[in-house]
């Protein structure tokens, strides 16, 4: 399991929202990049109401899922196209548990916090018909990460799963919002959750 590329915004480009511009255009960086509480050095967030902050400091997407999309769409999915900060290899990101902790390289530790929810900016970026719906249906959202330990990371750094919480709610399952017993199990486990995801889990668990 390793990092293939570390990506930061190349330039702000026009987007569909009132913010005017978006920082979704990420490109791979040479050498090592500093990782802080709010993400990668040199990166930007334009829509701060819906993106960024400590819980959404990094967005990771797997090369295996990008290759799946390339076959589905019959087009290349180069690293950074989805706005991801990290393109990974050999790691089942969608199978990661909420609250799971990874070590990246020798220094950085991150916690898996939430699946990526597709938005109008992503639709505008991809220029694919019904993209938001298709992305939902595919169940390959990738994961947002919280930085627990700062440091530097670079292409080729190994990724190690340091710990996994005592529940069964994966990124893919949280994205689908389908399993009430597993949501209840997660709530009972005491795992640290974002407030928005805790609210969703409670609603789903109540239906069971």
TrEMBL record:
Taxonomic superkingdom: Bacteria
SUPFAM superfamilies tied to this protein: PK beta-barrel domain-like (SSF50800)
A Gene Ontology molecular function term of the record: catalytic activity
Pfam families named among the record's database cross-references: MOSC
Record PROSITE patterns: MOSC (PS51340)
Domain MOSC, residue spans: 27-162
InterPro entries the UniProt entry points to: Benzoxazolinone_Detox_Enz, MoCF_Sase_C, Pyrv_Knase-like_insert_dom_sf
PANTHER family referenced in this protein's UniProt entry, alphabetically: PROTEIN YIIM
Name of the protein in its database record: MOSC domain-containing protein YiiM
């Amino acid at each position: 399991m390793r990092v293939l590329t570390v990506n930061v915004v190349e330039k702000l480009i026009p987007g569909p929202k009132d913010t005017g511009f978006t920082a979704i255009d990420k490109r791979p960086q040479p050498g090592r990049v500093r990782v802080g509480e709010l993400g990668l050095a040199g990166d930007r967030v334009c829509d701060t109401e819906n993106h960024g902050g400590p819980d959404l400091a990094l967005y990771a997407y797997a090369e295996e899922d990008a290759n799946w999309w390339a076959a589905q769409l019959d087009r290349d999915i180069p690293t950074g196209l989805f706005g991801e900060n990290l393109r990974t290899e050999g790691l089942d990101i969608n199978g990661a548990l909420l609250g799971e902790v990874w070590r990246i390289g020798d220094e950085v530790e991150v916690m898996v916090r939430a699946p990526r929810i597709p938005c109008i900016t992503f639709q505008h970026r991809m220029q694919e018909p019904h993209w938001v719906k298709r992305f939902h249906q595919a169940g390959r959202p990738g994961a947002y990460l919280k930085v627990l330990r700062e440091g530097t990371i670079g292409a080729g750094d190994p990724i190690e799963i340091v710990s996994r919480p005592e529940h069964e709610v994966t990124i893919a399952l949280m994205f689908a919002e389908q399993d009430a017993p597993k949501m209840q199990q997660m709530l009972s486990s005491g795992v640290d959750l974002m407030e928005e995801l805790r609210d969703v889990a409670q609603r789903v668990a109540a239906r069971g």
